[in-house]
Each structure stands twice: as structure tokens, then as C-alpha cells.
Amino acid sequence: MAPLEGIADVSVLPNDDGTDFASIVYSGPIRGAGGTAQAMSVLIADVVRRDLGIGSFTATEDEIQRYTEEIDHYNRIKHLQYLPSPDEIRLVVSRSPVMIDGEGSEEEEVSGHRNMARIKSNRIRGGMCLVISEGLIQKSKKILKHTSALSLHEWDFLSMISGQKSDDSGESIQKSEKFLKDIIAGRPVFSHPSRPGGFRLRYGRSRTSGLAAASINPASMIILGGFIAIGSQIKVELPGKAAAITPCDSIEGPMVLLDDGRHIRVNTTEEANEVLGHIVQITDVGEILISYGDFAENNHKLERPAFTSEWWEILARKIPDAHIDHENITCNEAFEISRKQGIPLHPKFLYFWHDITNDELKFLVSETASVMSSGHISYRRTGIIADILIKLGVPFSTEGGTHISPNDPEIIIRTLGLDRCSKEDIISKIDDGKTVVENLSMLSGVTIMERSPTRIGARMGRPEKSGDRKMKPKVHVLFPVESYGDNRRSIIMAEDRASDGYESEVASRKCPKCGNITPVPICEECGQPTTFAESKKMNQINLQRLISAAENNVKVSLSDIKEFKGVKKLMSDMKACEPLEKGMLRSMHDVSINKDGTCRYDMSDIPLTHFKPEEIGTSPQRLHELGYEGEKEFELFPQDVIIPADAARYMLHVSQFIDHLLVSYYRMEPYYSCTKPEDLIGQLVIGLAPHTSGGIVGRIIGISHVSGCYAHPLFHAAKRRNCDGDEDSIMLLLDGLLNFSRWFLPSTRGGLMDAPLVLTLHLKADEVDKEAMNLDTLSEYPEEFYDAARDEKMPSAIEGIMVSLKKHESQNGTVMGIGYTHPTGDINEGVTVSAYKTIGSMQEKIEKQLGLAEIIRAVDQNDVAARVLNSHFLPDIYGNFRAFFSQEFRCTKCNTKYRRIPLSGKCRKCGNASINLTIHKASIVKYLEETIRVSNNYDMPEYLKARIANLARTITGTFAEDKEDKEDTLERYEDAS
């Protein structure tokens, strides 16, 4: 929603019983973002109406059904991030004390429940759909924290959303699968919900995680086909809906079964690259590091924790006079310590015992006892034993293709108790009423903990983003060329075509010296500055004369410029244009502009609290000059940023453009004088999020190799963003001060968004988005945390012992001096560009997506294939097929659209004889062949196969066959079916 224009109207209306209620009319949707803020606006309205003594809204049955129909219709045409169920919609509309209304923002209208007394429009109300779906319903957990704090008990019904108070296991499964909805073709699934072999939850924070960012081992990025890069978004099962991924090499990487029979864990990028072409199966995708703060922010219960080395070390400290080498502890030492001191077995010697059954445990005991000799184990290679060892995560090798030997047989022998008892005694003691872990604790004589009780389902969301902002088509200057510049908006072409001038709506300016009326700030006749001539809009533009004057002014020839593009029309109220000189210089320096006259660079948001000089290419000496202290690792200042190398190169061009502009147009001295990207270190930028109007000043202190902006969580929060895949822009501060103008902004709804209308110079922690204040600051989680997580308590139950950034700041008076729990070797290590961006065709992407699904143990490839067809291909084909029969026709010259081709066969506006379809057969069948291929290669539900066969027959019958069509896949598919 547009923050400055998001609410179009607020009114008081009557209920049927004569009481009154408050109604909020939300404006048309600009983008699906800020769901929590959307919902909070409803709560604020509720508080106000209470204070004013206004009654509660009572929805009628017809109105409830209208909302249900409308939200479903909106999802079909715009696609919601979260489509609520009819029951969820009914719950919110019927129980909300405030009416959530909206402007008719879409062209489509509802088919039923029309012409209603209290709903003024029959058109789809996009703002209402977003506030209910992605606001109140999707963010219900977060909203409940606020309603509880404000004692707004009328909103307690939100706890009934998504089964929050339900013990129904089927409902829980459905809830956990929500992240799998709307799988996008070419973007893989890494783990189905809570499935063994999927991402293993590990609690903690690296210096690159928190604020909805999670860390994985860089080796996992490589093994998973390179689809997850640093800054890529993944959709997750919990605790929130998504997370940005960052590297942390101190947590465990994936396990893979190789074509030579080895089953190994891969913990380094070097190892990952070595085995990449030899993987038979990815048996475990590795750990994912998620902070307590993200559970607290999402108000999600703590899931059962993995027993990790950091937890074990906390327990080991209780041993009096203990001198334990935690890094190099041996299996024998670990068992002895556990037996003597009563603490659990060190996690280094634990397998995933909780993933097998008691029957499998008995089989393993029997097999192990029969083949072990002098501490060595060599199993006969069978499918059963191999499957058990893979489930357990046991590294092993294959001997001659006939036997399997675990790398560390002592762990298995001791854990099964075979060093203490006979096979018969052990099997007789296994109690089927107990878990495998409980049985092993009894058999081994030591406490066996769960190595990884919580797996997290995940799939790829958006790839990381890094690129300069371009309007479509690319623009160098905000100057109107009407249709004379063709679809490319070429000013060079417009000069040739409009030699006698042309009409355009543009603000007129007057020269105080010679009286010349012109659209530009510098008079082309006498070179004097001009002023606006009241509110008059000039019509006639002599482009040749303006270009000639601009060439002379900045000493640049148009013949030396490859391309020079303007806009078709000016969209602002003022109709103010930029001087042509700016466009010429931008073109020379290969930069383009946004709608507000600034040069932007877009990047994914990535959090960072600590960095090393070598990671960012800035020497310790230079960092000392910038105010940092230390040598090897530095804590990032909240308003400092580290930008990608591509961004630095682009900003170098922008700085050179600005210097050129200062010298040749403003007759001033250059400001930046940069000759290489590293010269930008120390320069100021403006950070700005797309759906806001407030920028924050930042300072460039380094350059990374990733495709995202590393910055302090508070800096991202100051832009009203978190790091779950969001992307923002930066611009050089002087560019914003010099070239931005509110006069350029479009007058349409949402035109004020994504523009630096206000600028924050000094970041204050108590003024940013509160999500950042939940950031973890501890260098170690206390034992009480793990106890609470084992009991699956709510995060609020232990917030007193977990030091959030908010608590740290209140105790120390500063946000500096925080810690993290897990070290990261290099913030640039791992995949830096997602394979999704480098793989060419959609067919190749799908082949990689489904190929990955086939080798990941935690993924059901048939389910992935069916979901890709249902959520991506079939809706696209059906949508284009329907649109084909209701399409418009377009003039190829002036772009005028017609419902029917004029009888003359020519455009009535420009006389052009070339009028084309807007939707062609190619757009309908572009995914059909791939749809048929996928449905043939995977085990699809019968109804889905029948649906595809029927669609293929329909399309075949609609379009006449030519020679190429006679051997088309459609015919082959029809015959095959």
C-alpha cells in the first residue's frame, strides 16, 4: 500500500440496527508489502473509534460473501502472497469491529453480490484485499502481540487463524505446507515440510544473519545446484514466511552419496566443488542457522533444538576442574566423560538416531554384532543397511562394491552398547514403548540426545538482486518526445522527425532577459536562467533549437552519443522537464534515471554486524581514518554500507556524470573526482525502499563480491525493511540533492512512493522499525534457552534472559558492542550469483529444478512436478488462452489500441496500416510442450493428466495447422493419451 496515499477515505456509516461504525477506504494497491503496517492501520482506526464512542461494524451475510468472492478474484488477476481460506475471510470480516473497505482499483468487476448499499463499487477493491489477506490474516501472529499489549480483546479471534488454537494434526500439516504454495517453475524445492534430510534447525546468529536472514554452510549453496546464492530468498516452513540466505562455515554442510559408493559430509566449498559432478543423492542438505530473535519477531513457538557443541560446552563447564579439549575430543574421551560426569554424549559422536524405528534399531544391532571384528565393521551391502546408515547420517565407504564400512565404527559399537552386552541382551532390552533415543541411552550407558529433531521445509523464492535501476524503456532525461521518438523514446529520432517542432504538454518557463518562452531552465536564445511562467503549459517545442543550445552549453555533440532517450509524456502535475544537457551527459557516462531524476542501484538487503578488512577490500588504515578501531575484525557502524562490485562500478559512472555536470552545466568545481571504484570509499549515499518516501543517509566503507547490500540491521530497518528477500536502492547523496525534484513525480496514485521526500541524517534506534530491535546480541545462548526450546515454549517466556538489541541499548546506552554466536570465515564465500539467473531457457531451469528434486532425499519429485504445472504452467496457458479471445489490437507506430480493427485497416490516429494482435498463439503454447513433457515423465495424479490432455486437444482444435503443426507435440500427445 502507498504509505502517503494508502487511505483514501474514513467515514462513519450506519449498521442495520441503527448503530454506527467506522469505515476505512483503502486506496488501490501499489505493491504487496508492509502487511504488518497495513493491519496496524486497522487497529489504530479501532482505537480511535473507541475513543470517539463509535460502535462496531456488523457485516451482513451478503457482504461477507462479497469479500470472499472478491479476494479470490483478486488473487486470480494479481496473485496474493497469501490467499486466505473462505473460513479465514469470513472470520475476519464478520468479527472485525471496523469495516475494511477500498476503492475499486481494478478494471475487473465481481460477478455476484453487486450494487450493495455499503460497498460503493462493483470493481475489485485491491487495497481491501491486501489489508485483509496479507495484513490481518497473514500477519495475525504479529498483530496478536499488539492487540494483547493494547488490551484490544475484540481482536482475540485472530488466534483462531491458521489453526493457532487447534490440535488437529491435519490442520498443522496443511499449515506447514503453506510455503510450498505457488511453486515457480525453475525455482527448486530443497525440502518438503519437516522431512528428514531437509534443513536442520540450529539456533544462533552469525554476523550475517538475523532480521529475517538465516545462514547455511557455503558448501550447501554449491551442492544444491548453485540455486541459493548469498542474498537469495528462500520460502521457509518456519518461523516466518521467508528468509535471505547468508554464509556461515562454522555450521554443518550437506551429506551426499557419491557414485563411488562413499557417503560423506561436505563442509567446505573446496570439497563441494570436488564432488559436484559425482553426486547420486543429497541425503542431508545441512544445517540452517536461525536466531531466537526471528522466532520472537514472528511470535512463533520455539521448536525442539538440536544438541550442538555449544550446548554441550555449557553443560561441560559444570564439571569441576575439567580440562577438555573441545575441538579435538576423541570418541573414547567423550563416552568416558559422559559416563563419569552424567552429561550427554558430545554431539560430534551422535547420529540421527531419532530418524529410525525400533525395528530398524534391532536390525542394526543384529547386523553389527554379526560383522564387527576388532573394532572394525564391514556390512554386507544391502538396500536395508545402506538405507539405515543414510538415515542416521553415518559417513561410510564401499569396499569392492559388496561391503559398506562406517568411517568411525567405534561410535556405532559404543552407542548400540555392543562394547558392554551381547546382541541377544541388547535386543531383549529394546522397549518398543520407548523412543530409539531413550532405548540407546539405556543400552549405551550415556545420555543420547536428539541430534536434529527439527527439520525445516524450504524452497527457492526470489534470486538475489543487484542491478542499476532502469525505467522501461531506458530513460536518460525527463523530456517529452511524444510519438516522434518511436517506442524507444529516442530524442535523436524525434529531432529528425519533428524538424518543424511538435506539440507537447510541458511547463513553460520565461527568460527574464529576452522574454523567450521555453521548457528548459536555461534560455536557448541568450543563456540566462529562466523561471516558471505561472501555470501555463506550452505546446510547441522546437527540439532542434533546444538540442543545439544544449550542445553548445556543455560542449558535447549529439553525434558522439550512441543513444539519447527521453519520455513520451510528462506524468507530473507541474509537467516540469529536465534540461537536455543532463540527458546528454548521462548518456555519455552510461547511466540512466528513475522517475524522479536520480540514478539508482537496486540490491538485495543483507544484514551484517561485524566484518573483516580483507572481506571488503578496505585496509585497516583506511578504516581507522573512517573512525573504526581494531585490526582483524570490526563492528559495523549502523549507517555504514558495503556495496557489490557492480554497484561500485555503476556509482563510479554516476559520480563522473555528476562531476561533468557540475563543471560543464553549473560552472562549478568537480566534487567526487573518482577514477576507480575504490575512490568511493567514504562517500555518502541515500538508502531508499521502494514503497516508502523517506531516505536514510549511509556511507560506503567497502566493496564485496556478493549481489546485495551488506548493512547494519538498523540501517535496513530505517528503510522500513527486513532481510527476507527485500531489495532497496542507493543513490549518491549529491545526485539526490542535485537532480531530484518533487516536480518530476507522477501525479498518479502512488507517485510519491519510492522518492526521497524526506531524508534522515542521523539514525536513532528508537525511531526505526521495531523488528530490528529483536536482533540477538548474545555471544552464547544460555542453558535456559535450550531448556525452553525443548519444552517448545513461546519466545516471550524467556525474553528476560535473552538480550535483544532493544535491551542491550537500554542497558548500555548504545547499539554498539553486540555479539554473535557463530563465526563466519568470509562473508563472500559461497555462491555469489544464483544458477536461476545464469541458466538460459525456462526448459533448462525446469530440468535443473526437477533434476535436483530427484536427488534430494527430503524432496518428493512427483509432488514438485505436479505443483509446478498447477501453480505456474497451467494458469499461464489458461490465462493467455482466455485473453486471446478478448484481446485488443495495437498500432505498431503510435501504440493506439482498438477493440476491433478499424474498417479502413489503418490507425485512425496516425494512419499507420500495421495493426497487430496484442496476444499471439506463441504466448499460449510457449509452456505447453514443457507441460506435456513433465506430465509424461513424472507420476502425475490422473485428474491432472486428463486436464492437460483436454487442454492440448482444445488448443489443437482452435488454431489451424500448418506444415510445422502437423508434427506438433499436441498431436503426438493426443495420440499418446
The gyration radius over C-alpha positions equals 32 Å
How confident is the prediction overall: mean pLDDT?
Answer: 91
Helix count from the secondary structure assignment: 33
- Unreliable runs, pLDDT <50, ≥5 residues? 163-171, 963-977
Question: Quick one: biggest sheet?
Answer: 8 strands, mixed
What is the CA–CA distance across the termini?
47 Å
The rough form would be described as globular
Portion in strands: 15-25%
- Output the strand order for the largest sheet: 4-17-7-8-6-12-5-16
Q: In percent, how helical is the residue content?
A: 25-40%
Task: Label the structural class.
Answer: alpha+beta
Q: Give the tally of β-strands.
A: 33
Fold and architecture overview:
With 977 residues, the chain is α+β, with helices and mostly antiparallel strands. Helix content is 34%, strand content 15%. An eight-stranded mixed β-sheet has the order 4-17-7-8-6-12-5-16. It has a six-stranded mixed barrel with strand order 22-28-25-27-26-29. A three-stranded mixed β-sheet has the order 1-2-3. α12 runs antiparallel to α15 and α18 (543-554) packs across α19. It starts with 6 loop residues before the first strand and ends with a helix. The relative contact order is 0.10.
